Amino acid sequence: MKIVFVSKNFKENRVDLENGDPEELTLMIDGDRCISCGSCKLACQLEHGSGPGNPGSVMPIKVERKEGLADGRTLTLPSACRHCKSPCEYYSPYNFWIICPKGKTEEQKVLTCDLCNDRTQKELWPACATRCTMKTIYFGRAQDVAFALREKRLREVGDVGIPD
Amino acid sequence: MTLRKKQESVRDYDVVRKTTCCNCPTGCGLKIFIKDHAIVDIFGDEEHPINKGSVCPKGLLSYFHIRNSKRIIYPQIRDKLDQPFRRVDWNEALLFTAKKLRSLVQERGKDSIYIYGEENFPFDYLAGGTWFADYLGTSNTPARFFPYPFGPEGLIKGMFGVPGSQLLMNSPRDWCNSRAILIYCSDLAASDPITLGPIIDARDRGTHLLVIDSKKTATTSKATLGLRVKPGSQKILLKGILHLLIQKGQIEEDFLKEFTIDFDSLKSIIEPFTPQRVARSCWIKKEDVEKISDLIGRSKPIQIIAGDHFGRRFLSDEDLLLCGSLVCLRGSVGIPGGGLNLLNVSPFFSKPRFSVNKDILLPGNESLFSSINQENILHHTTEKIGALFWYGNPCPRLAEGKRTKEALREIPLIIHLSSYPNETYQYSHVSIPMSSWLEYEGLVARNNGRAIQWHNKVADPPGECKSSFEFWSDLAKLYNSSNSFPWKENNSFVNDSKAINIFLKQNPLTLVATVEKMDSEKHPPGGLLWPCTEDADLEFENNRFIKGNIRGRNILFQRGQNYPYTDKRFPTPDGKISLAYLNRIKEEKGENRDINFPFFLTTGILIDSIEEFGCFVSDRDEWTKPGILQIHPQIAKILNIKSGEDVLVENERGSFTAPALLNEDLDPRVVWCPDGVDPYQPHWKGESPRSLFEAPGLPDEMDRPYTMIRLYKPGENKAEYQERIVEFLKQLGQ
Fold first, then answer.
1. Which segments in chain B show pLDDT lower than 50?
2. What is the pTM assigned to this prediction?
3. Cβ distance of B56 and A55 shorter than 8 Å
4. What is the C-alpha separation between B345 and B150, in angstroms, rounded?
5. In A50, B319, B401, B446, which residue has its Cα 20 to 30 A from A5's Cα atom?
């Protein structure tokens, strides 16, 4: 699967969804709409039987203002890093939605995002994307997301893709 | 495989019910999935025009609220506050209350009974409480405690002929037509997140989103231009904008000439507010004043959004009048994309009294109405207060906390309609367990879009929890058995639909609305827009200006249309908007800029803060940073404080300690702490910041949005740090 973040704060276009596997499941998050409300986090907890106060869920993170960000805006993005062992070698402010490639233990595998497999099996979007307050999260096959991404690029946004 | 963004649960369920969320005035539609009478899942209703399937944390937390083990589900009573509560049944609790009430009325008079209210409280509490107040014969009804500027005595009513509590000119369906939207002192991302949705949509289509606030918030971060101003100086910035618009001729003279009066008096008030003066007063650059004014001056139509359910208590007459003047100067009244849109509006409670004559409600005697502040009555009339009814958790929001809570201890009888054992519960003699809005049906009267909606009962309440209507009617019966609540069926259960239909019918603004027409399980979701005074108002608007997605009128004050029940476009004495009311604003006393208290303490709402739950249901967990008192990293460095370490905050009204959270979005002279915390909540436990605020002296004095404080690391040398702080602040020019 692919994860793509789009924002006016990113100046480069790096992601190519049009030439890869058109059926690849892709999650696109619009950083310009995210208000860091935590709805994705609660949705994840509700979906996977956890509750407030319990660890192991999506959390919103604030990307620190860095040089080059337009207007010094603070970017807030949802992160599915479960911090099972925090900080691990993959942790960084940009560690969004990593499918914990180093998840070797059963515990680590259980805690990572699986795109709500039981929902996607029924052709439904993941819980976080379904409930997102600001319709920030877009989910679909690469060819569908590519269409939405083209629209956003027309508004001069860049993107960042997270490799598998 | 076709992947659908469908609001569907994968859990086992029998039935899906639709209802309306009541956790904030946005009024989202929800789909509740139920199995064996228990709620198993919550999603947004994709057909609902307001949220279109989205759910914010406030709505999702309802799922965790209904099964929270800390909920109060049984009545409790005690004779004195220092005694433990003892559990009793519903009848015994109400008998205890009725008996004490009778005795207090005899001793101290009917007006010693106060039924506290806030606009955020459930409709059945406010309506039932107002009815009960009239039944008992006290003039201290819930609406007397509503913010004065939004009430019938607020000056905005004189300007437009409509009180601020009902002044939402253009519905959210129309907001995409604005060329500029100004969000004034509202952090919608925290208070009403889904209300921000159509605003962000408009922004993505090219609308300028402008935000004025004293802190850089999540809302500010989404703006085209967001200005962080000195706390309390936002009015000065508005005056600066008006000054520049007039100077540059960026005003709609035709509109002003035809539909307003006293423009010259506005001009003379605005004259001294040059960009230089405004920039200095507001802690911003002169270029920022010019930039925001230019964006507004080159955009038409513009709209202004203000008065969210949290921030409205800090808005004064002057704030509202300046916002109104700005939309008038840009000719943006009664046109698509325009409007002064004050949020959290309701067609009810612009008059605080109902008189009940069997089944008929008559308008009350308006001359008896005047606004009061809770702190005011506590500080000045304690010897007269016999009993106080309240709901939710208003205690931590009372200013001058130490003094106010001492006064509370003197009151012989406090009845709390409880959900959780919060601070307000701790200061009560009777705790009555309340059903959640998921557990009874009722009217959703307050809204950010001028809609009234219905919420269905989708689950049974636990224990002995009941609705507010049940409480008021049972208490009335026990207080005076010769009378009964008019909407109780055969003196047994309350017929909520019947009760609400009577209130709707008796309100001229909702004359043709009925419960049945609002039910989202029987009719298009979204409810009805008011005023709905004739059958045509029950249809979707479909004309060249707008295709409505909620039945009713989307745009008020349109040219060629009279305001309901009047023969004028604007229901003022001469049919025009008066710009002269700014003359009546008395000069606000400045803040105490004592060198000993160099910082501004401000407060705001958290995204997961809900009146009913407080912080008892929260998504804060061990992964969230532990700090709650936000201070600038430069100040933290001077005070030798790291994130998470305790900071002592104090002024002459008290002190509290809270862990620090470093945030460079703040001005270094400003400190921020969330509202609604109290020492009894499992998350964010601590004294409320509002306890350090000065109480307004008179009803027409607003709650000041800040207070002056000093900060220390506990145990450190105060004098040494004070010197360093003063030196640093001098360098900032203050």
1. 354-369, 621-625
2. 0.92
3. no
4. 9
5. A50
